[in-house]
Design goal:
The complex is a heterodimer of chains A (about 350) and B (about 350). Helices cover about 30% and strands about 20% of the residues of chain A. Chain A has about 350 residues and is α/β, with parallel strands linked by helices. Chain A folds into 2 domains: about 220 residues, Rossmann fold, CATH 3.40.50; about 70 residues, no CATH class. In chain A, the strands form 2 sheets. An 8-stranded mixed β-sheet of chain A has the order 6-7-8-3-9-10-12-11, with helices on both faces. In chain A, strands 2-1-4-5 form a 4-stranded antiparallel β-sheet, with helices on one face. In chain A, a hairpin with a 2-residue loop joins strand 9 and strand 10. Classes of the chains: A alpha/beta (about 350), B alpha/beta (about 350). Chains A and B meet through helix 7, helix 8, helix 10 and helix 11 of A and helix 1, helix 7, helix 8, helix 9 and helix 10 of B. The complex binds adenosine-5'-triphosphate (2 copies) and magnesium ion (2 copies).
Chain lengths: ~350, ~350
């Protein structure tokens, strides 16, 4: 179910190069929410985008979903460059979004049927005569059964997990090639979370979807993606094969993220020890978020390895022997290695 | 090895908080609470729930989606809206001088006085309900002024900045509008707001769903430090039991509207009794384990409009036996005087 072969031999379905997005601020200069991000989405593969809160993950999703315009760099879909504000209808047929909040993303006055019939009719995937059948087919695809009964429900009559399934059904209605899922399971409990992710994984395989899975949860990223990119303050600080990132993280921020993740299979003693250490306040709470003020590495304030050179912006260097595994960190600059 | 270590040990004895606090008596006491939703069928969302919240403790409430956690939180702060109504029960708050307030008897005006200063609440998904047309400075000012009309502008700003810093947000955030913030940043603003008046009880319903683990931990550490310093109490509601295992002093596990297990957190870690508690603990996915298909507890929770004579978890329970289907459950205490109880026939000698 998980492919780990190197991806650079294939052509990406969606190719993002040096993507830059800035927001105007009332005070001071623009806020660069995304700084020269480059990555590719591949048919039948899931790329996980993880990272700090406020690091630009949703901004990337909104940009790729044509909800925000690009300020620099380029995006290409199936080899064709994507233009701001143009051909949005065709684009939307191929690139669909799912958002975090299953409560907010559906319209309370419309039934499930209405939510799904609309995109089907709009994108010519159904006509007036067969739309009911098509809606039920779609509901079965996302395992909302009995479909005929569920079609007539209103969002408030559904559970969070069921609502998120409707949102996914709506997204796959036009038969898209790319699915951008922004924290699709963050608000759901573990059981439902796994159900939804298993569903997305099944759709990925069956429909050969390219999925961008945005999450702040490395554990699910590990299990449901073939590669991972890590963001911190607008920068992609690390990218590579899922196992490489999780098992041999290069960037100090990724290491911090992994160290902070809940660990399973800790013995009761270990769990108890971690817990008491935390309760004793031994884990330092000091944190300063200087926002994008550094000319050099953005992680310098919190980095245990910070040194002179880090006051200059690092480039991307290969971590270890696998040249698809890169980190934006001076530690991996070939000459600086001991 | 040495005094330093002993000192730490002294400080961190996990049950220290519990001992200290139980001695002070509960600040909030919920008795036999029943909440229902009116409709074609009546949904019994909270059933016979009783518990105590002690001064200075973090009480965790865990359970799957739909088990009634938010309904309970709304009920004990008297904020339920139709079609929900309280069928029976009490929620009693102890004021600083020890005199009790029956929260469920307060009228609108008294409630307004009570909220934010005595008990504040972080609602689930509240980050989507921030006022979109005013900046944060104004939104914080409104909260301050509602209870302290003569607070100076300077003091408001100063306090706001301190709260924002506590949740890891930059000073400049104060001039921004909600739509200019990421989901996690908005969630942090809501947490900061709940602490504006440093209330005695803070109820947080899924406050960190949008946060990455690093920031989540940093904020929780800040809250714990602050809470130790000021000795306020926290009810922390989440479906993420692994989080509660780290931060809470005591834990309530809810299933189908009922509390099925209650215990000091260390006892849950060491010997969770209820098969459901063990089930949710086992379904925490493993970051480093082999990659394979992951599953939660098989099956789904029961329809809360049905009358279930026995155990609501029976159809999903790996340990179920004959009695579970139709013999009513009772609280089984681990030992006399213990704070640890479970509602499961496995531990009931009589069954
Ligand atoms: N419309 C906007 N106007 C101004 N600034 C914005 C706007 N939208 C986002 N930002 C800023 O851009 C940065 C990145 O935000 P983004 O929502 O992409 O973060 P994120 O990685 O999705 O975070 P989270 O994990 O909290 O959702 C933040 O600093 C945010 O304040
Ligand atoms: N407005 C409503 N009308 C009817 N039933 C409702 C309503 N709101 C909630 N319920 C039902 O009450 C029960 C408890 O819901 P509640 O929101 O308290 O659960 P929860 O434990 O907070 O779940 P989650 O983890 O998803 O937030 C559920 O079965 C739900 O379907
Ligand atoms: Mg986001
Ligand atoms: Mg809830």
């Amino acid at each position: 179910m998980h492919t780990t072969e190197a991806q650079n031999s294939e052509i990406p379905l969606m190719e993002v190069k040096d993507l830059t997005v800035e927001f105007k601020q009332r005070h001071g200069r623009n806020l660069r929410a995304v700084n020269k991000a480059s990555f590719g989405l591949y048919a039948g593969k899931t790329l996980a985008l993880v990272g700090e809160s406020g690091s630009g993950k949703s901004t990337i999703v909104k940009t790729l979903g044509k909800l925000i315009k690009i300020d620099g760099g380029s995006v290409a879909l199936a080899g064709k460059p994507v233009k701001n504000y143009r051909h949005t209808f065709e684009y939307r047929q191929q690139v669909q979004l799912v958002f975090q909040d299953p409560f907010a993303s559906l319209n309370p006055v419309h039934t499930v049927f209405h939510h799904l019939a609309r995109p089907l009719l709009l994108h010519g995937k159904a006509d007036k005569k067969n739309v009911r059948d098509k809606v039920e087919e779609l509901l079965e695809k996302v395992k909302l059964t009995p479909a005929a009964e569920l079609a007539n429900k209103y969002p408030h009559e559904l559970s969070g997990g069921q609502r998120q399934r409707v949102a996914i059904a709506r997204a796959i209605a036009p038969n898209p090639k790319v699915l951008l899922a922004d924290e699709p399971v963050s608000m759901l409990d573990v059981s439902i979370r796994l159900e939804i992710l298993n569903l997305l994984d099944e759709l990925r395989q069956k429909e050969n979807l390219a999925i961008l899975y945005v999450t702040h949860d490395l554990t699910t990223a590990r299990h449901f993606s073939s590669s991972i990119i890590v963001m911190h303050k607008g920068d992609i600080v690390e990218s590579g094969d899922t196992d490489a990132i999780v098992l041999a993280p290069g960037h100090p921020y990724t290491q911090l993220l992994l160290n902070s993740s809940p660990k399973k299979n800790l013995t009761k003693e270990e769990l108890g020890k971690e817990r008491s250490e935390r309760l004793a306040g031994k884990v330092s709470a000091a944190m300063k978020q200087s926002l994008y003020t550094n000319k050099g590495c953005n992680f310098i304030d919190r980095c245990p390895y910070a040194k002179e050179v880090c006051t200059a912006a690092p480039g991307y260097f290969t971590v270890g022997s696998d040249n698809t595994h890169k980190a934006k960190c001076w530690l991996y600059e070939p000459n600086s290695r001991q | 090895m040495t005094t330093e270590q002993d000192r730490i040990k002294e400080n961190i004895r996990p049950d220290a908080a519990t001992d200290r606090t139980i001695a002070c008596g509960p600040i909030l006491s919920v008795r036999e609470l029943n909440v229902e939703y009116r409709g074609e069928k009546v949904t019994k969302a909270v059933q016979n729930v009783s518990f105590e919240l002690y001064k200075g403790e973090i009480l965790g409430i865990a359970g799957e989606s739909g088990c009634g956690k938010s309904t309970l939180a709304y009920a004990i702060t008297n904020m339920l809206k139709p079609p929900a109504y309280i069928k029976s029960g009490k929620a009693v708050y102890s004021q600083e001088d020890g005199s009790p307030i029956d929260i469920l008897e307060l009228n609108e005006k008294q409630l307004r006085q009570f909220r934010w200063t005595e008990v504040s609440m972080v609602f689930q998904s509240a980050m989507n309900a921030l006022n979109p047309v005013t900046n944060l400075k104004k939104q914080f000012a409104d909260i301050f002024l509602a209870h302290k009309p003569d607070m100076s502008k300077n003091e408001q700003t100063e306090k706001t900045l301190r709260l924002l810093e506590m949740v890891g947000l930059d000073k400049s955030t104060i001039n921004r509008f909600p739509h200019e913030l990421s989901g996690g940043m908005r969630q942090r603003v809501i947490i900061a707001m709940s602490l504006c008046h440093m209330p005695n009880v803070v109820i947080m319903d899924e406050p960190t769903t949008a946060l990455d683990v690093v920031i989540q931990r940093e904020i929780l550490d800040e809250i714990i430090n602050l809470q130790k310093e000021l000795n306020f109490s926290v009810i922390f509601i989440t479906h993420d039991i692994s989080l509660l295992m780290e931060i809470s002093d005591r834990l309530l596990v809810m299933y189908a509207g009922q509390i099925v297990e209650q215990a000091p957190t260390d006892e849950i870690i060491n010997q969770a009794l209820h098969p459901y508690t063990n089930g949710i603990m086992a379904s925490i996915p493993d970051l480093y384990g082999e990659r394979k298909e992951l599953h939660g507890i098989p099956g789904t929770p029961p329809d809360l409009s049905l009358d279930i004579p026995g155990c609501p978890f029976e159809p999903r329970c790996p340990d179920a036996f004959g009695a579970c289907r139709d013999i009513p459950l009772q609280k089984i205490f681990l030992a006399d005087g213990s704070d640890h109880f479970v509602k499961c026939h496995k531990y009931d000698q009589r069954v």
